[in-house]
Every structure is written in structure tokens, then in C-alpha cells.
Amino acid sequence: MTERTPKILVVDDVPENVRLLEAVLVPRGYEVVTAHDGDAALDLVEAEEPDLILLDVMMPGLDGYAVCTRLRANDDTAMLPVIMVTSSVGQEKTRAIEAGADDFIPKPFNHDELLTRVRSLLRIKRYHDTIKEQAAELAELNRTLEQRVQEQVGELERLRRLRRFLSPQLADAVVSSGDETILRSHRRQVAMFFADLRGWTSFVDAVEPEELMRVLGEFHGAIGRLVKRFDATVGFLEGDGVQLFFNDPIEIPDAALRAVRTGCALREEMDLLMPVWSKRATTSTSASASRSATQPAARSASRAAPTTRRSGL
């Protein structure tokens, strides 16, 4: 909280008392504003926002008790320190406390005692203002944190949906860009990769649907791993056929080399999968001979030289 000169409102209908309090407070570095009745005091509280009030009890119109009661009824001034100043003691002291006064000092007052009580209440006021300011900052942080969490949750949900149709790299690029400008039509040199399973048509006729879907799932899983590994963009993935693009819409270096390496990596994947497919086919109880003779094999072709493609994803 920014330090400033403490401001004290002195309220007394006797000008001599006001001047006396000013003479005590001003040399000690306090800013003093004055009012000569209760109504003027309430107006100054709103206009000047004092840090403490020295309030005389007996005044024409609104007396000190009424002023203090109104201050405590207002949320903005409920914690404003008030010291009641009066020439009598006893019952008036009790009434002052009941009205909400924080302290009480009789006239004639001791200067050192008055300054001690002023310093004490101003210190408490600073603590209260600091806590109030920190609470407001914390509330703002909580509000902005909640907003950021909601935005991140929305972004994660959007990313989850995009990843159902796009490669992880492309989905991340769309989400991180904040919009879909990356998907607008543009021209760029790309490398294209195409692969399908040789003998797929005869294989489809020879096996049960369950085995067909199992082989497709394993093939698509292999393609998915390669898409992520080599930063490819899926052109299409339909049945046993797949088309991949490199350098579009995400720019990557050595697009043609990545296409070639994708083909080599797919061949390695097929070297692992084909024995499994063959084993399952030869041990099947139905049409084993036919299946072993028609096992699919991967064939691929990649255009090592970049070509130009108009993209409007």
C-alpha cells in the first residue's frame, strides 16, 4: 500500500478546541481537516476520506454519538478509527463506546497521551487497509485464475476434438494459434507419401470381418505412430490406403527426406506385423490356406522431389 501523510478529521463546535488540536497534530506531520458540526463532519468523511476522527461529543444538531453511530452503519466507514473527546467522564464514556468509538479521551487532554492513542489507532488502520487491499488482490487473482482455468479447459477440450481428425502436431498448432488461420488456403511446396496394402482385395474376401478389422486397426495404428514421429499431415486414411503430406499446413524442414524415412519406417513396421498376420491366418480354423496365400503386404510410393499443392484444409 502506498504510504501517505495520515489525515485526521477534527470535529468540534468550539474553534479554540479545533485550533488546539491542530497545534498538537500538525507539527507531528499529520494533515488536519476540520468540521464544526456533525453534518459537516459526515460530508467531509465522504469527501476527504480521513484516516482517523477526533470527535467532540457535545455539539449542536448531530452530536458525537449520532455521528459515530452513522459512521458504523456505513460499510465504507465501519472500520474508520474514532476517538471521542469530551469534558465529562463516567456515563458518557460508556455511551461513546456503545456508539462505536474506538477510544475515549477527556478534556483537558494530555498531549502525549493523545498522540500515543492517535499513533496506535492509525497503525491499526494501516493494518486493516493492508488486509483489505490484499483481500481485493486475492479476489482478483482468484477471478482471473478461474477464467484462465476455464480457458485452458476449453482449449484442452478443443484439442481433444481436433485430435480425432488431425495429427497431434496439427491439432496443437491450431489450438496454440488461437484461431484457424493456419487452415486457410495457401500455396507451399510439399512432399507427399502414399501407401496401401498389396493383395487387400483378395484378403477381404477370404477372412472373417473380425480379423479384417483387427488387421486394419493394427495397420492404422502403425500409420498413426509414423504421423506423430515424422510430423506428417494426414491427407486421407481410408481402409488400406493412406496419404500423408509433409510441410503443409505445418512448415517443417527436409519434407522430402521425411517422406522417404516414413516409407522406410513403415516397411520396418510391416516386417513386424506381417508374421503376426500370417500366424493368425494359418492357425485359423476356416480357410487357412486361402488366407495364408492372400496375406496383405505394404507397398508404398513417396515422391522424393517436392511438388506444389494448393491446400484448403
Care to describe what's here?
The longest helix has 52 residues, at 111-162. The protein has 2 domains: 7-134, Response regulator (Rossmann fold, 3-Layer(aba) Sandwich), CATH 3.40.50.2300; 179-311, Nucleotide cyclase, GGDEF domain (Alpha-Beta Plaits), CATH 3.30.70. The strands form 2 sheets. Strands 2-1-3-4-5 form a 5-stranded parallel beta sheet, sandwiched between helices. Strands 6, 7, 8, 9 and 10 form a 5-stranded antiparallel beta sheet that branches. The protein has 313 residues and is α/β, with parallel strands linked by helices. α2 packs parallel to α3 (64-73), α5 packs across α6 (168-177) and α8 (209-230) packs antiparallel against α9. 53% of the residues lie in helices and 19% in strands. It has helices at 15-25, 38-48, 64-73, 91-99, 111-162, 168-177, 200-206, 209-230, 255-282, 288-293; strands spanning 7-11, 31-35, 52-56, 82-86, 103-106, 186-198, 233-238, 241-246, 297-302, 307-311. It starts with 6 loop residues before the first strand and ends with a strand. The chain is built from 10 helices and 10 strands.
Topology:
Blueprint lengths: L6 E5 L3 H11 L5 E5 L2 H11 L3 E5 L7 H10 L8 E5 L4 H9 L3 E4 L4 H52 L5 H10 L8 E13 L1 H7 L2 H22 L2 E6 L2 E6 L8 H28 L5 H6 L3 E6 L4 E5 L2
Parallel strand pairs: 1-2, 1-3, 3-4, 4-5
Antiparallel strand pairs: 6-8, 6-9, 6-10, 7-8
Helix pairs in contact: 2-3, 5-6, 8-9
For the secondary structure, the number of strands is 10
CATH architecture of the largest domain: 2-Layer Sandwich
Q: Please provide the ordered H/E string of secondary-structure elements.
A: EHEHEHEHEHHEHHEEHHEE
Q: What fraction of the residues are assigned to beta strands by DSSP?
A: 15-25%
Query: What is the CATH C-level name of the largest domain?
Result: Alpha Beta
Parts with pLDDT < 50 across at least 5 consecutive residues? 285-294, 301-313
Computed CA radius of gyration, to the nearest angstrom: 42 Å
Mean pLDDT: 81
Q: Reading side by side through the largest sheet, how are the strands ordered? A: 2-1-3-4-5
Largest sheet: 5 strands, parallel
